[in-house]
Amino acid sequence: MDTEDTTAPALAEEIAEYYGRDREDARLRTGAGRLEFWRTQDVLRRLLPPALARILDVGGGSGVHAEWLAADGHDVELLDPVPLHVERAARLPGVRARHGDARALDAPDASVDVVLLLGPLYHLPERPDRLRALAEARRVVRPGGLVVAATINRFAGLHDTLAKGVYFDADRRPHIEAAAGDGWLRPGRGPKALFTTAYFHAPEEVPAEFADAGLTAHGQYGLEGAAWLMGDLDSWLTDPRRRALVLAALRRTESVPSLLGVSGHLLTAGTRPEEASAG
Hints:
Blueprint: H1 13-19, H2 24-29, H3 34-47, E1 54-58, H4 64-71, E2 75-80, H5 83-89, E3 95-99, E4 112-117, H6 127-140, E5 141-153, H7 156-164, H8 173-182, E6 184-185, E7 198-201, H9 205-212, E8 216-222, H10 233-238, H11 240-253, E9 265-271
Parallel strand pairs: 1-2, 1-4, 2-3, 4-5, 5-7
Antiparallel strand pairs: 5-9, 6-7, 8-9
């Protein structure tokens, strides 16, 4: 049995305050945020084992993804450090939800088929904390089991604020430029704050972090491609025919190495290596 210190610090105050505003659920269910939702769903459905898989949705928020995973027939348990998220997720059919921290999972070794980390890594700006979360995922997933982690790409803030015109705000631009430099978003406070404390990865960093945590990365998938920077994206997503064209186009480019960093979000998939046989 793998053992380690499971004492983890609490969620940073400003991150807890940001998610306590209860905006994340609507962000992925409405407007342009639906692109991230549908593309995450599309990629995961191709990666996941057949139902009934035991899935631990770590940092799963209000259950936006846990809901459809359970409807697909999977056994889903959601962990999140935000009480409001846990309360919301617990109401969803087929979803078990409880408080938890990605760096100290209250789950037995090799007890699940899949671990999803669709939010925790970009709110752990210190690399040792990210490695701790990935190592915990490795511990609780069975040998050969799947781990999928979401990260925000290094230039996502730059691209987003250019598209929205926010980059030209002299008060905000230093925070944007700093994040594009070292990956660490320190958004400041007040009405002009950008998002919350976060780390923006370069795509090539993520497989290296997987490897340092004992996981073998085997695929990366840019979620939004260049489509998230399209004008009037919301109306394109609302039209079923146009939406299908956009999603098909993004599948064509999702794993092209030179285009991975164009997306706002990246999924990296890996496995816990099979145990070596004795003898």
